[in-house]
Amino acid sequence: MAFNMIRKKLRKLFQLDCSPQILAISSAVGVMIGFSPYVGFHTALAIGISFIFSLPMYPLLLGAYITNPFTMVFIYALCYKVGRWILRDDTPIDIDWTNTSLTELFEAARTILLPFFAGTHLIGLIFGVITYFVIYYIAVKYRQNT
User: Fold this and answer.
1) How many other C-beta atoms lie within 10 A of the C-beta of residue 42?
2) Which of 23, 68, 109, 125 has its CA 20 to 30 A from that of 31?
Protein backbone atom coordinates (compact mmCIF):
# COMPACT_ATOMS: atom_id res chain seq x y z
CA MET A 1 0.00 0.00 0.00
CA ALA A 2 2.78 2.46 0.89
CA PHE A 3 4.68 1.41 -2.24
CA ASN A 4 1.64 2.23 -4.40
CA MET A 5 1.34 5.66 -2.77
CA ILE A 6 5.02 6.43 -3.43
CA ARG A 7 4.65 5.22 -7.00
CA LYS A 8 1.61 7.43 -7.52
CA LYS A 9 3.47 10.49 -6.18
CA LEU A 10 6.48 9.81 -8.40
CA ARG A 11 4.24 9.38 -11.44
CA LYS A 12 2.62 12.72 -10.66
CA LEU A 13 6.11 14.25 -10.35
CA PHE A 14 7.16 13.08 -13.81
CA GLN A 15 3.88 14.15 -15.39
CA LEU A 16 4.39 17.80 -14.47
CA ASP A 17 4.33 20.17 -17.43
CA CYS A 18 7.95 21.37 -17.30
CA SER A 19 11.26 20.39 -18.83
CA PRO A 20 13.30 17.56 -17.33
CA GLN A 21 15.96 20.12 -16.38
CA ILE A 22 13.51 22.28 -14.41
CA LEU A 23 12.06 19.18 -12.77
CA ALA A 24 15.54 18.00 -11.78
CA ILE A 25 16.57 21.44 -10.48
CA SER A 26 13.39 21.72 -8.41
CA SER A 27 13.86 18.26 -6.96
CA ALA A 28 17.52 18.88 -6.17
CA VAL A 29 16.82 22.19 -4.45
CA GLY A 30 14.00 20.51 -2.51
CA VAL A 31 16.37 17.81 -1.28
CA MET A 32 18.92 20.44 -0.25
CA ILE A 33 16.18 22.20 1.69
CA GLY A 34 15.18 18.88 3.26
CA PHE A 35 18.69 18.29 4.54
CA SER A 36 19.07 21.85 5.81
CA PRO A 37 19.23 22.43 9.57
CA TYR A 38 16.32 24.87 9.52
CA VAL A 39 13.80 22.48 11.04
CA GLY A 40 10.30 23.88 10.93
CA PHE A 41 11.04 26.14 7.98
CA HIS A 42 11.42 23.54 5.22
CA THR A 43 7.93 24.09 3.84
CA ALA A 44 8.22 27.87 3.97
CA LEU A 45 11.63 27.73 2.27
CA ALA A 46 10.31 25.46 -0.49
CA ILE A 47 7.27 27.66 -1.13
CA GLY A 48 9.37 30.83 -1.05
CA ILE A 49 11.95 29.45 -3.48
CA SER A 50 9.14 28.25 -5.74
CA PHE A 51 7.71 31.76 -5.98
CA ILE A 52 11.04 33.61 -6.17
CA PHE A 53 12.57 31.42 -8.91
CA SER A 54 9.32 30.30 -10.63
CA LEU A 55 10.05 26.64 -9.98
CA PRO A 56 7.31 24.03 -9.69
CA MET A 57 6.31 23.64 -6.06
CA TYR A 58 5.53 19.91 -6.05
CA PRO A 59 9.14 18.66 -6.55
CA LEU A 60 10.43 21.25 -4.08
CA LEU A 61 8.01 20.03 -1.40
CA LEU A 62 8.67 16.36 -2.11
CA GLY A 63 12.39 16.95 -1.70
CA ALA A 64 11.94 19.09 1.39
CA TYR A 65 9.90 16.35 3.05
CA ILE A 66 12.76 13.86 2.86
CA THR A 67 13.34 14.91 6.45
CA ASN A 68 10.21 13.78 8.23
CA PRO A 69 9.54 12.36 11.70
CA PHE A 70 10.57 8.88 10.54
CA THR A 71 13.89 9.90 8.95
CA MET A 72 14.89 13.03 10.87
CA VAL A 73 16.90 11.38 13.64
CA PHE A 74 18.90 9.22 11.23
CA ILE A 75 19.54 12.03 8.72
CA TYR A 76 20.58 14.58 11.31
CA ALA A 77 22.74 12.08 13.22
CA LEU A 78 24.57 11.30 9.97
CA CYS A 79 24.95 15.01 9.21
CA TYR A 80 26.31 15.69 12.69
CA LYS A 81 28.85 12.87 12.38
CA VAL A 82 29.94 14.12 8.94
CA GLY A 83 30.24 17.65 10.29
CA ARG A 84 32.44 16.47 13.15
CA TRP A 85 34.59 14.56 10.67
CA ILE A 86 34.92 17.57 8.33
CA LEU A 87 35.83 19.94 11.16
CA ARG A 88 38.10 17.33 12.78
CA ASP A 89 36.16 17.89 15.98
CA ASP A 90 36.91 15.33 18.70
CA THR A 91 35.60 17.50 21.52
CA PRO A 92 33.49 15.41 23.88
CA ILE A 93 30.08 16.76 24.76
CA ASP A 94 30.20 16.90 28.52
CA ILE A 95 27.44 18.79 30.32
CA ASP A 96 27.09 18.78 34.09
CA TRP A 97 23.33 19.22 34.40
CA THR A 98 23.46 19.64 38.17
CA ASN A 99 25.62 22.77 38.02
CA THR A 100 25.15 24.43 34.65
CA SER A 101 25.44 28.09 33.78
CA LEU A 102 24.12 29.84 30.72
CA THR A 103 27.67 30.29 29.43
CA GLU A 104 28.31 26.55 29.64
CA LEU A 105 25.07 25.83 27.77
CA PHE A 106 26.04 28.22 24.97
CA GLU A 107 29.48 26.62 24.76
CA ALA A 108 27.92 23.15 24.58
CA ALA A 109 25.49 24.37 21.91
CA ARG A 110 28.38 25.77 19.88
CA THR A 111 30.23 22.45 19.99
CA ILE A 112 27.08 20.71 18.74
CA LEU A 113 25.70 23.25 16.27
CA LEU A 114 28.85 24.03 14.30
CA PRO A 115 29.43 20.41 13.16
CA PHE A 116 25.68 19.99 12.68
CA PHE A 117 25.41 23.02 10.37
CA ALA A 118 28.54 22.03 8.42
CA GLY A 119 27.33 18.46 7.99
CA THR A 120 23.78 19.30 6.98
CA HIS A 121 24.89 21.78 4.35
CA LEU A 122 27.53 19.45 2.88
CA ILE A 123 25.30 16.36 2.87
CA GLY A 124 22.43 18.44 1.44
CA LEU A 125 24.66 19.66 -1.37
CA ILE A 126 25.91 16.14 -2.16
CA PHE A 127 22.44 14.60 -2.16
CA GLY A 128 21.07 17.57 -4.10
CA VAL A 129 23.58 16.99 -6.90
CA ILE A 130 22.83 13.26 -6.91
CA THR A 131 19.10 13.99 -6.99
CA TYR A 132 19.53 16.34 -9.95
CA PHE A 133 21.17 13.68 -12.12
CA VAL A 134 18.84 10.86 -11.04
CA ILE A 135 15.64 12.88 -11.60
CA TYR A 136 16.90 14.29 -14.89
CA TYR A 137 17.73 10.82 -16.20
CA ILE A 138 14.39 9.34 -15.08
CA ALA A 139 12.41 12.30 -16.44
CA VAL A 140 14.05 12.02 -19.87
CA LYS A 141 13.44 8.25 -19.99
CA TYR A 142 9.86 8.66 -18.73
CA ARG A 143 9.06 11.22 -21.43
CA GLN A 144 10.60 9.05 -24.15
CA ASN A 145 8.34 6.16 -23.14
CA THR A 146 5.13 8.18 -23.02
Assistant:
1) 22
2) 109
**Could you list the pLDDT tens digit for every one of the 146 residues in the chain?**
678 887 887 788 888 888 999 999 999 999 999 999 998 899 999 999 999 999 999 999 999 999 888 999 999 999 999 999 999 887 776 666 677 777 877 777 778 889 999 999 999 999 999 999 999 999 999 888 87
Q: What is the pTM of this model?
A: 0.84
b/e map 4-38, b = 16+ CB within 10 Å = eeeeeeeeebbeeeeebebbbbbbbbbbbbbbbbe
CA dihedral 46, 48, 115, 111 (to 10 degrees): -130
Neighbours of 143 (CB within 10 A): 13
Q: Which residues of 85-109 are buried (b: 16+ CB within 10 A; e: fewer)?
A: eeeeeeeeeeeeeeeeeeeeeeeee
